[in-house]
Amino acid sequence: MQYYSHKTVWITGASSGIGKETAVQLAPISGIRLILSARSVDKLQDVQKSCIEKGAQCEILPLNLEESDMLTDKAEKALSIFNGVDILVNNGGISQRSSVIETPIENDRKIMEIDYFSSVILTKAILPHMVKKKTGHIVVVSSISGCFGFPLRSAYCAAKHALYGFYESLDIEMRKQGIAVTIVSPGRIQTNISYAALNKNGNAHGKMDEGQANGMPVETCVRKMLRGIQKKKHEILIGNKEVLMVHFYRKIPALFHAIAGKIKAT
Fold first, then answer.
1. Contact at 8 Å (CB) between 34 and 23?
2. Which residue among 156, 167, 195, 249 is the active-site one?
3. Which of 80, 106, 134, 258 has a CB 3.0–4.6 Å from the CB of 178, allowing a cystine?
4. What is the per-residue pLDDT for 212?
C-alpha cells in the first residue's frame, strides 16, 4: 500500500459501506491524510474517530451530493484542508428498486443528480489542481450495472452507464497529463445500499436484498479495489460470479440476454 503513503485521499459516501471501509483500510498507512464526506455528521465522526485511532490524519467535510450548487465550494474547502487532494474517490450514490413504467421522472432526475452529476462536478473542481501539479488520481465507483441494463434499475443503470462514458473520456484526455483515472465496478457487495434505494414513490426500499446479503464481504471488495487503484488500473470489476455477466454482455450478448431475464432482481 505504499502508493497511498503521505497522500491526501478525499472519499465521498464515507459514512457507510464501501466508502467507510475504504477509509478504515487506508487509515493505518504511513502519512495518510483522509477527508471524509457524506450527509450524516454523526456517522462521519464515528468513522473519523476510528481512522484517527489507527494513526491517520482525518477531517470530515459534510455534504449532500444532491445539492449540486454547493459542490464546487465543497471541493475548494477540501483542497484547503490539507493543501490539495491527491486521490479523489467518488463513491457516494443511491440505487433504485422500481420498473421503468412505474418510475416517475423525478426519481430518474434525482438518481442522475446524485450518482452522475455530483461526481462530475467534484472531478471538474479538483482536476485543474491535479493538472497543475502533473499528478493525481481520480477514482469513481460505478457498478457492473454500468456495463449492462438490469430489471428494476433503469435510472441507476443509466447513471452508471453515464459514469463510464465520462470517465472513459477523461482517462484518454488525462493520460499525457500525469493523471490516473480508475473506474471501479462492484457487483453484489454486502452493504446497506438496498435499504436506501428509491422505490416507485421516491421512498427508501427499506430492506436488505437477498443478492446483497449473500454478496462479497465489503472488506474483501475494498481490498481488491485498493490493490487495483494502486496498480492504476483503468477498470476494476469486483464481485463473485455475477461479474461473469459483464464478460457475457461484452463477448456473448445473446447469452447475457438469455440469462438476465431469469435473475432475481432483488
1. yes
2. 156
3. 134
4. 78
pLDDT in tens, 35-47: 999 999 999 999 9
How does pLDDT run across 72-122, given as a tens digit for each residue?
A: 999 999 999 999 999 999 999 999 999 999 999 999 999 999 999 999 999
**Which carries the bigger pLDDT value, residue 257 or residue 168?**
168
Strand locations in the chain (E): 8-12, 33-37, 57-60, 87-90, 136-141, 179-186, 189-190, 216-217, 235-238
CA distance 154 to 142: 14
Output Rg (C-alpha) for the chain, integer angstroms.
Answer: 18
Structural domains in the chain? 2-260 (3.40.50.720)
Q: Determine contact, residues 176/229, Cβ cutoff 8 Å.
A: no
Mean pLDDT confidence for 161-184 = 97
Beta bridge partners, 136, equal 179
Residue 192 has pLDDT above 90, yes or no: no
Which segments of 129-257 are extended strands (E)? Answer: 136-141, 179-186, 189-190, 216-217, 235-238
48's enclosing H/E stretch is helix 41-53
Could you give the C-alpha distances from 253 to 27, 79, 135, 207, 212, in angstroms and in order? 41, 43, 38, 32, 25
Q: How far apart are CA 127 and CA 136, in angstroms?
A: 8
CA dihedral 112, 211, 150, 152 (to 10 degrees): -60
Read off the C-alpha cell for 112.
Answer: 442522475
156 is catalytic: yes
